[in-house]
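Lecture 7, part 2: worked example. A protein chain together with PXL.
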Amino acid sequence: MKKVLTIAGSDSTGGAGLQADLKTFEEYGVFGFSSITSIVTMDPTQGWSHEVTELPADLLEKQLVSVFTGEALAGLKTGMMGNEQNIQVASHFIEKYQVENVVVDPVIACKGTAQILQPKSVSGLQEYLLPQAWVATPNLVEAGILSGLGDLNSLADMKEAARQIHKLGARNVVVKGGQRLVGDFAIDVLYDGHTFHVLETKMVQTANNHGAGCTFAAAITAGLAKGYATIKAVELAKAFVLKAIEQGVRINPYVGHVWHGAYNQAQNRMEEQ
Ligand code: PXL
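Predicted complex, written out as structure tokens:
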């Protein structure tokens, strides 16, 4: 059994964060561990604003000690880190245990909300986690910030950002165009330091896509852990997320989530015979 870890924030509504990661790991048939860095809550009395409560780094460290007591992990994903101390702790464990298949989802900006910006994470990501990443998966806004290029508006901009983030040490960079890039297709660019692969899927017009980014990175992690080549792991993750978006679920008046089980039709499991 392949074992994989997510170091991420908690989204109690179950769409993004470590909840998305664990659900995705299960769909891929790998055993999921999780260590919590922060807790995201949403307050409907404030127009459904997000609040991030950071957890202290010593608590993250205790969780990681628990996780790393067992045999080697086959993959590791980082998501929302909360603060720079948590980034340093995570980075330390990755180095100490020489973890392979590290996927860094550099969560700085969540889709559709400026409230969840994590400015404190930017330099830590650049200095510690991106150099350890086998794959980094910034969205358009994050890629603009991490590369220092600012607003990205075209495929050419995405390629240049990928090139800059590769220079920071990430071995493979997927810049996710998603809904932010104008056009009929969801375009991602994968750069491995030599070649740009432009990955296109149809754009699904839906509001029920909360959690898509986390799910994508978790799917890549699980695919790599299972031994898929990087390009194959990224392509499969894209197909997995497309299905999850197409079958998104309305959660409340404010938000709808991707359905992590869509690719395998998990809703049909365990039916009474
Ligand atoms: O999608 C970014 C993200 C990551 N992690 C957690 C989140 C969110 C967005 O809401 O809640 C825990």
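The longest strand covers residues 31-43. The mean pLDDT is 94. Keep this in mind for problem set question 3.
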